[in-house]
Specification:
Spermidine Synthase, Chain: A, domain 2; globular; Rossmann fold; alpha/beta; 7-stranded mixed β-sheet; single chain; binds 1-{4-[(3-aminopropyl)amino]butyl}guanidine
Length: 284
């Protein structure tokens, strides 16, 4: 935990994330709420006038109170409206709980959150109001473990697996590799879906293309989709929907009430890719 004294000594005027060596985003710091190094990464929570609380891991923006809904709704709801009967859900990463809160809006049986860093959970419980109630939900199980090791060892099968990782650096590296997706396949039920955040179409196109190449060898449907996320690099974010049987555009049901971004028109539109991304995915 950072002490008050440390905070007083080191309050920067701005927090920045570099998106390339010569561009990025900055947040004026109203207050540093938390700053520490866990066993895995640097964890910071700052208060910003415009975005509210901002969580950064190793200097990369993970979520903000004000714009979290774009990313979390778009990570979670496309798979849930497409699956015929989603009951058992696995969430790898996402210790801030934003994706978990969206999963729990659905009448599912079981949501298993596997987060590598207990300290991200502890910090998020304190600073992001949605995490604690989501963890207290009877349907939730929290497991502190490496996601890649977990899927290798668990005997359980899931209807949907969400991968809410950070960028391919630090503790998230293994969650972006072919090996991981191979193991992941064996945790999916026959009609299973996996959805992963896939990076910025503008800044990370090369790594997205590489991922596409190995994913197409593993899954019949590799369907990329995009959404705006104001505080992520480039302001637009890529996700990938992976399945063998279920098609994302054959919608099975409407979304829960009370969402701020996702609806069925957005769902359909999100899978229409701009020309520079059109070669991605296997189509459906
Ligand atoms: N997971 C995706 C974070 C990627 C952001 N990348 C960046 N800022 N360079 C977010 C976790 C939120 N639940």
């Amino acid at each position: 935990m950072s002490t008050k004294k440390e905070n007083r000594e080191a309050v920067p005027l701005e927090e920045r994330e570099y998106h390339s060596p010569s561009s990025g985003i900055f947040f004026k710091v109203k207050k540093i709420l938390y700053r520490d190094k866990s066993d895995y990464q640097k964890i910071e929570v700052i208060e910003n006038e415009c975005f509210g609380r901002v969580l950064l891991l190793d200097d990369l923006v993970q979520t903000t109170e004000k714009d979290e809904f774009f990313y979390h709704e778009m990570l979670v709801h496309p798979a849930l409206v497409s699956h015929p009967s989603p009951q058992n859900i696995l969430l790898i990463g996402g210790g801030d709980g934003g994706a978990l809160k969206e999963i729990l809006r659905w009448p599912i049986k079981y949501a298993c959150l596997v987060e590598i860093d207990q300290q991200v959970i502890d910090v998020s419980k304190e600073y992001f109001p949605w995490l604690l109630p989501s963890l207290e939900d009877d349907r939730t199980e929290l497991i502190i473990a490496d996601g890649s090791e977990f899927i290798e060892k668990t005997g359980k099968k899931f209807d949907i697996v969400f991968i809410d990782s950070s960028d391919p650096a630090g503790p998230s590296v293994s969650l972006h590799e072919s090996d991981f997706y191979e193991k992941l396949k064996s945790c999916l039920n026959r009609r299973g879906i996996a959805v992963s955040q896939a990076g910025s179409p503008f800044y990370h196109l090369e790594s997205i293309k590489k991922k596409d190449a190995f994913l197409e060898k593993l899954f019949k449907n590799v369907c990329f989709y995009t959404s705006p996320v104001p505080t992520y690099p480039g302001g637009s974010w890529c996700f990938v929907f992976l399945s063998d049987e279920v098609q994302p555009l054959k919608i099975k049901r409407g979304p829960p009430r009370g969402l701020k971004y996702f609806n069925l028109n957005i769902h359909e539109a999100a899978f229409s890719l701009p020309n520079f991304l059109k070669d991605l995915g296997s189509g459906d």
